[in-house]
Amino acid sequence: MFGLPGLLCTIDQKGAAGDLELPTQAEYETQASVNIYGPKGLRRYLRLSLALSRSRLNYTYAVHELVMRDEHRPDGWEEWASLEANPSEDPPLYCERPGRDIEAHADGFWYHVLDGDAEGTVIHAMALRHTIPSVGWLILRPEQKRTLDVEAARSLGIPDGPLMGELKRGLTLVVNGKTINPDQVLLPPVRGHRIAIMGDSYDSGSLIRLVKSLFEQGKLTNIQLDVLVHETTFQNSMAAEAIQKGHSTPDRVAQLSSDLDVQLLILTHFSHRYSPIESGECNVETISSAAGRKKEKPSLQILLDEIKSTKFQGQVILADDLALIRVPLVPK
Asked: Which residues form a coiled coil (predicted)?
């Protein structure tokens, strides 16, 4: 959360705003170049952060807030801060455009927060258990149409050109007296990816309930996720401290991943008490303290080992800044 105002400024200062699809002059007063989604309070937070730092953005943005009900918020949250922006004391910025207030469904979930972009992606959201309002996102990609295996078609004597297109459309051809069916040259259909990205949480059980709800509604064919991105802040021996601070341990994440048949688990949000993994052979790194004394700092290998010692059978990756991770295609 602290990095979001800076990220918006970086987009501007690095010239990346030039890559955004800016609204026309007629649309400028109402359209946003950047749309941001998050829990109630995010609109006020960004508005105050940008205003107090006098950050002038050369593009427009809108914040779409998930309206939190009592069961979504941690106890005593109202004693800390108001989630509502005061129109008179915190007026909208010149670069801010109106955002949506998105109400939860009767079962507590926010369905179709984003419903069918240009590619047909649908995003649902759920509240997570943390010390401040926190949400998770379930991203459902559409099924990919069958694509043409060009080399297979060529091997059957199909020349490049219109005939390739007819096969791709599912038409049966007769070429040089030989019948060629589309199934001979079309690759199998690919199921759309299912990706869950969780915010800070010590209990993400709402993800299981959401996935089961979509399955019961016929929106999913089975209970399985291709990717789960989840925090793992502390090791299992620190479970009490983790819950107190609103964070997760490997055992909790592994159980969640097993229940959802996760194929690829990406762990994030590691405590600074852990050092990066330099070697798979070492769980402890010796570092120098400010006083010049040597002390041992545990390695992230501990978290990885604890995940791998559970019944979870999927692939596990420790996230790293700017890492790009390819998600394998899933046959339908």
From this structure: none
